[in-house]
Design brief:
single chain, 16 helices, mainly alpha
């Protein structure tokens, strides 16, 4: 190349053009231009090496070291996840404090009304089981306190959040959720069967507690006599009042508070709070499992009616079993229990089989919004907050007071 340059520079200006020399100069200048392009830093930074003919570039190959759009999306997802966790703690804490207020208010009302009624000699009785009150007065105080203490905070919170009552106490039609009447009936029987099966892990936990010498008998807050009026109030207090007000609080208000963080989280967390509310270990196990069933059916059907009915049947079976044992003795009581279990377990198996057969149509929960925090993180936030920690401490204290823990 240097020789070519010196030769062209040393040639006379007025000499006649040599066609061979001019062709050589043209090739040399073209080669120099190609060299200059290949050595240009601006070109080498952005250009990509050419591929042999017939070979195409893989579209998934990254040509840059960083993707600013992906990085910004990651930062946004982390920020949204943090906000979700903070809001999860807040919602779970509010739900737990709502239950604590209900427990405190119920005990306060029972003690206060009992003290007021005992000041009247006409309302006295000699039975310590009824706090030295007449049984009708005792159950009247219990029913009134239960309704006010649990129902009033729930309605007050609902009014504070300015939510329509029909969104808290929902009675949607089955057709609006893609369910037929036969599917609703099968869901009820399946729920009843699964609720009865929850007695077996409860009995297992009770046996383990007995092996370690831990009592599982809590104080009887539903004493009973042979008086017919007392038995009617006994059934009313055990069968009708708790299913109505507890489902209003736990499946109505609390589950809807938690539902913004996912249906699965709302079902599990509301069932956990429902178990802690009962204040002893065996009932915690049963109430937690029953809460999972009732919460799922409430969300899937869009109606609180089916969870109320299952709750009523469960409590009614327990109360009626006690009455039958008192009326007819232990043999009839055992026969009634066995027949009840057999019938509803068979119906539950039929209902569950129908739902499993049509699982794609009837079992999936409705789609909810996309959440950035995984369920395990949300559950950690649901338990690790001030309200839930206080509710757990209250549960431990109640277990200790009743000689269960």
């Amino acid at each position: 190349m240097n020789e070519s340059n010196s030769f062209s520079e040393g040639s006379p200006k007025n000499s006649a053009p040599n066609p061979e020399i001019s062709d050589s100069e043209t090739k040399i200048s073209t080669a120099q231009n190609d060299f200059a392009l290949s050595s240009d830093p601006k070109v080498t930074d952005s250009a990509e090496p050419s591929l042999p003919p017939g070979i195409q570039k893989d579209p998934t190959t990254q040509t840059t070291f960083e993707d600013p759009i992906s990085f910004a999306s990651l930062v946004t997802a982390q920020r949204l996840s943090y906000e979700e966790m903070r809001d999860t703690r807040r919602c779970a804490s509010h739900s737990s404090f709502l239950v604590l207020i209900s427990i405190f208010l119920m005990n306060l009302m029972i003690l206060g009304l009992t003290w007021l009624c005992r000041s009247n000699p006409a309302l006295h009785s000699n039975s310590s089981s009824f706090f030295y009150l007449k049984p009708i007065i005792y159950y009247s105080i219990s029913c009134f306190s239960y309704c006010v203490a649990i129902g009033f905070p729930a309605l007050l919170y609902q009014l504070h959040t300015h939510q329509p009552l029909e969104k808290v106490v929902r009675f949607d039609s089955p057709k609006s959720h893609g369910l037929s009447r036969s599917a609703i009936i099968c869901m009820f029987f399946a729920g009843m069967g699964l609720t009865l099966l929850a007695n077996y892990p409860t009995s297992f936990v009770t046996q383990i507690l007995q092996m370690f010498g831990i009592s599982h008998v809590s104080p009887d807050d539903m004493p009973l006599t042979s008086d017919v009026t007392t038995q009617i109030f006994y059934m009313l207090y055990g069968t009708l009042i708790p299913p109505l007000v507890e489902e209003l609080l736990f499946r109505g208000v609390i589950l809807n508070i938690l539902r913004r963080h996912g249906d699965s989280f709302a079902i599990i967390m509301s069932a956990f709070i429902f178990g802690l509310y009962h204040g002893n270990i065996p009932q915690f196990v049963f109430a937690f499992l029953m809460g999972l069933i009732a919460g799922y059916l409430y969300i899937r059907t869009g109606s609180i009616l089916i969870s109320i009915l299952i709750h009523m049947f469960n409590n009614g079976f327990s109360c009626l079993s006690v009455l039958i044992e008192q009326w007819y003795g232990n043999t009839v009581f055992e026969n009634f229990q066995n027949a009840y279990f057999l019938v509803f377990l068979l119906l539950g198996a039929v209902g569950l089989g129908f739902l499993i057969k049509n699982r794609k149509k009837y079992l999936p929960l409705p789609k909810s919004k996309t959440l950035h925090a995984p369920l395990s993180v949300r559950m950690t936030c649901g338990i690790g907050n001030l309200g839930t920690i206080f509710l757990i401490l209250n549960f431990i204290v109640l277990c200790a007071v009743t000689n269960i823990l």
